Amino acid sequence: MLPQHSYYSDYRYAPDEIPLEEFVLPASPSELAGALADCGIPTPDRLQQLQRSRGQPPLTSPTSAQQKPQPFPPSRLKSELLEPARYEAGLARIRTLDLQSGSDLAGLCRRLFADCPEDLDRTVAAFGLVCRLAERPRELHRLPCLADRAAGRPDWQSEVFEAVMSLSGVPCQRLEGLKKGANYATGHRSHVGGAWFACFIDGEWRHVDAIWGSAGLPLAADAEASEAAVAAAAVPQRNDFFFLTDPARLAFSHHPLLPEGAGPDWQLLARPLSLDEFHRLPAYFDGNRAAMGVCGLRPVNCPLCVIPCQGGVADLLLQETVAGRYRYIVQAEQVGSRNSGSTPVAGAAVSKPIRLASGRVCLKFLAPLAGRFELRVGVQRGPDWLTEHFAAYVVHCPAAAPEPANFPAGQLAEFGLTEEAELEGVQLMGCQPEEAEAATLEAEDGEAAWLLTSTNPLGDNPDAPLPCCVTFGGDVDSPTDTGDGLKRHVLQWSERAGRDRRFRFLAPRSGWFAVTIWRDAARLRPLCELLLVADTAASGAHLGLPGCDSLLGWPANVDNQQQRRLGRRRLTDEIQLKSPTLPGGGGEPCLSLRHEAELTLLFRTQGRYVARAILQRLRPGDLLAEPLSSFVMVNGAPEGFQVHIRFPQPGNYLLDIRVLPRREEVDASADVAAPTETEVEQPLCLLLLRSLCTALVPPAAFPQVLDAAAASDFQLLEPLNRRVSSSERPTVIRLASLEPSSERRSLLALVVEDRGGPAWRLPFEAADPAGLSSLRLDQEAGNSASRRRSLKVVTRTAGDTDREVPLLAFELLPEAGAEAVVEGEGAAARRASLELARSESRRRWQRENWRRAAIDGLEPLTWDAEQWERRTAEALAEQRANRAAELEQRNRELEAKRLQDQLVSLVEAAFPNVLNRNELVGAIESADSSSDRGATESALDELVAQRRLFMRPVPGGTAYLLQEEQPEGSEISRSSKIGNKKLQQPSQSESGADRWGMGRVVSFNRANFADLQLLRRARPTVAMVTRLMCEKRALDAVTLDKESFVQYETRGGGRDSHVYTLGRIGRRRVVSTKLPAVVGSPDGLQARVACGNVVTRLLGVFQDVEHLLLVGVGGSPSGACRLGDVFIGDGDAGDVGGDYLDVARGRSWRSVDRRLLTAARAAAEPVEDKAEEAINWTSILESLAAEAPAFARPPRTTVAAPNVAFGAVSCGALSGAADRLASNTTSKVIGADAGFDEVLESALGSRCDSFLLIRGCADSHTGEQGLHWQPFAALAAACFAEAAVRRLHGTTDYVV
Questions:
Q1: Which residue windows are coiled coil (predicted)?
Q2: Which of 398, 446, 904, 989 has its CA 20 to 30 A from that of 739?
């Protein structure tokens, strides 16, 4: 629909003018793009694409002038049919040909086509003759055979061409129809007709317009008059575009109507145009006279010739489809009716080309008044830069453009990136994603922001910020601001080591502005020029912007060499700003506060950090500032910290936040602690805060933080003011402990007079389960008539009363002559609450009146004490209720998360056995007698909803699985991979989620003989056994071409389930399984029997297994291994005699076949060659740990390559009294695990004489206590196992 405006409702149409409703485009850009893509609205490029896909190839059968083939759309382009050199040679021959005046037509044609063996050459000769006669009409009068036909006809070129082509032997069809020529009125139905031809050349029909191609004048009565007319006019210039023109290009200016009934066919289009479409489409005269190509342009938002606007601004968006840049010339004229002509508009403004991304160009037009305007777009192309007409549009503007209706001249030829910047990969975008291709940056409320980003540093020095220079200009009548004036309007800063450059602009007034960005201060190398529009001046523009370009940004984003060398993550990966959301998606360090005198920044951290904040007030143009330490405070918060800021007056403030990583406490049970580096304070961010609010009362100072490290373990809830009162109205100090419940410290308040004296010790109330502690300061606590006192909050560790760490400091206000309170504590509390409500209500009333006057422009409200006190009391009660609800909700969420993690751990430990709901609930209740059954069942349902667990019906209840069950028909008998007897060349390595999964999971039945036979056809020779789920996932990550087969045995409580993951490592087929943990087995006997049965059945199903690997986590009680190291069971290393020792029972196991041990020793050697079998296993470990954060090395630990140690491994924890072995045996044990004696007994009983234990060190015991190190240790063991299997010599399993 047309825009709802009186201009359109009152518009009077001229004769033959097309109704404006027919030019309305789809409202949304996506719908318009869809209409253009589907060719619902034809464009030259889209029609050409259809020609290529739907057009017919050339005919190969011979033709003649008498037997004309039926018209069909050709698929070839003009450039494929006509060679420029051949074309120019043919024209040059015709220009020098002797025409022999007075000869007949047949004789003329014989000489004309004498050296033209093909149809194309004869057609070029005929076209060249017409062009020669148009330039030299005297020669036409000397040829009576042609002059008689041309006499008195304005289109004599078509008569001459038709006469010559009739004797050429080339099939030629005369076409007559409508043409959009010089007299065509845009937006009207065309009535101008003419003739052109379709010539059958090289097996396809092509269009030739002899009239427009020769550009000749009408023929006069005699030769002298014709020569005089040519001399008086411009010399006719041949236009090669109209010779053999592509149908998709000619269709916008030529529409055939004759021969009657065959007009659409003679368009030679795969998608013909209707007559109505022909009238509504622009006439794209995109031919180049000097070259035979076409302009690589297509309309994006203006596919029709009339543009109905909503206001006085029109945008023409064009897409350049060829390499190289064009120059654009746009002329604007106001037009009336069809016959009234056009008048140049005084004051009309057309912008310079605005170059966008992906070759798009925008041309903006500002109407000086309401009316109808014609825009003619011309294109200049190198090397001669001649202006070629492209298209003409009629723009209807129902209103004038907003003042000022003109564009700034700027300093470059175009808006947008320069060609040099585009070649270097520089991108220009707004801070919001939808502004990535905005033609004009809109300064909403007078402010705008944009980003220059590049894959390479924008400056010459990659480590230095870009030395960018910005010049600013308003409309054409205003001067350009430089020097200090620049600092008042544009702010810039660097990010990503100079690869990103952000800018913020404050408009001093409404209107259009040009901002030019240069690489250097000398302004010799420009980067880009932007066009900005502001509807109003920016709020607080008089404050200006400071000159701190080189300081602003997020220094923590810089990934320097030292951090990469140490393997550390960037600070911004571990510390993130959660609220408020800063402009630019959180990356822009500039925040404007319009009506808030306070600000709170909430940071979430993944580790423990001590933060420090520095607040400074800046003056415009320099960095001289006064520190405001009393108006900034760092407060603890759950999972992070808070920064509170108050602004004493309007202005610009610089907030510098620095953090210090806190060293993690070393586990007392660990014998070996990883060394830590010296912790230094690191910068996190530098924020520019612009306060535009004038506070009604001066802001109060924050409490003083005495020890930042100790204070980070607490969150001060109230009060957040340094000065507190202890007279008539009691003050409550409330703090929340952020430490674990087992480590919470007690709090104490010390009241000290300024002039000295003993301190008055006031203990806090004991912390509740949520960690909240409070202290009430009444008149008795701070009784002093005229003395000032200070109050310090200190923390005291239980059992260490001599050491007290100060946290916060407050100032106690004196009573100032207040009368003594004789009533009880309850009455004093009631009076204090009443006074608090009165002061709060007064403050709310003042703030409401300020908002009404400053924002809404309303009358102020009258003061009604009773009403405002009631409203304030209700608001305070609601705040207290909301705070209590938030704390309760947080506790519920933490408890639910703990339950969910515990349930998932139980299911993972029992896998492949399945547990039903009753077993899981019972396990939770046995571990915690106070647990709630309803909460546990709710946690189970939530895990299913989150798809962390999956349900499977079993007899007697519902079982829970770790992966989703395959659909019906996915049983093993239908598997394609396992049926291959010999696999071919191994596939490439897996990545992403496939790497850490078990591959395709199908079910099998061990009791089914067919399933067992299909499994045995895999014939793996290496088996790997794990106990924990993290160990199984680590093995899956290093196994390729995985396929898992699972049997969930639901009878007997799910105690006979199995999982076999088949795959390959290198060129060997491998199979891995996981030992289940039996829930409800207190003595562990049932679990040991189940583990032995798993290995026995594994070796029974896969009878080709030669080697058994026990891969997982362990511990190093002797301290011989660091956390994360790998140790291998090798009895030869310490002359113990056994690879695996049970010290308590006096048993030992030794592998008879030592090939696995030999391969492990080879894998531990440094890698020198580049063969596949010699891949460095530590490199694989680093890449996998970086890919999966859950398996990464624990944070704040030493980053060093794991070592490999060989020695005896103990079955279970070492006993102090080992009377069955020699006393020196235990000293030669390098590690211990949780106990795999039943597994080895089953393996040796099944005659598997080759086994090897590979353990990753997770703690100083058996690997069960180091929960934080278990994933990384398991991954290290799995990577080393892969290296050992690759080094394993012997018969390979794959035939290459």
A1: 870-904
A2: 904
